[in-house]
Design brief:
158 residues; 1 helix; 9-stranded antiparallel beta sheet; single chain; disordered N terminus; mainly beta; globular
Length: 158
């Protein structure tokens, strides 16, 4: 995920799992009410939800094109990676956007083995520092911005 404002930019580092501690929440029987752009695809059912608390990590550097992936690993050893496919602004100003993430890979045989999409919603905080704070004197420096969010994991309905 990138925020490009100038040639010097703040870039979200890959490996979100290393930056946040996910804590499992009780299983929810129904999907959350979200904007249409980030609704889970038809034919999917909610299989897991988690609340995350941690930090978004940003680094001041000159821009290059590259792709980041999100990685989530469950206690049962299953893992899912994905790429954001849609986003909407958080209703909480100053918070990172809400996302729909499409799974791009899996490992293990647990709860995440069949996950096809993930929503990140109810975000608080995590917004990148102002672009103006990234100048040539700060290249290579980082900032960790605290945030919380809820993640909803979906798999094909049986």
């Amino acid at each position: 995920m990138r925020t490009t404002k100038t040639k010097r930019q703040q870039r979200l580092l890959p490996g979100l799992a290393a930056a946040i501690a996910m804590q499992a929440a009780a299983y929810a029987a129904s999907a959350p009410d979200v904007p249409d752009q980030i609704k889970a695809p038809a034919g999917e059912r909610l299989v897991f939800r988690a609340h995350a608390s941690g930090g978004q990590i940003y680094v001041c550097q000159q821009g290059t094109d590259g792709e980041s992936q999100w990685t989530w690993k469950h206690d049962d050893g299953s893992e899912v990676t994905g790429k954001a496919s849609a986003k909407v602004d958080s209703p909480d100003r100053g918070s990172i956007p809400w996302l729909l993430v499409i799974a791009t890979g899996h490992s293990g045989a647990g709860v995440f083995a069949q996950v096809t999409s993930i929503q990140r919603i109810n975000t608080k905080g995590g917004q990148a520092p102002a672009a103006a704070s990234c100048d040539s004197s700060k290249l290579g420096t980082g900032a960790t911005i605290p945030y919380t969010a809820d993640y909803y994991f979906y798999a094909p309905a049986k």
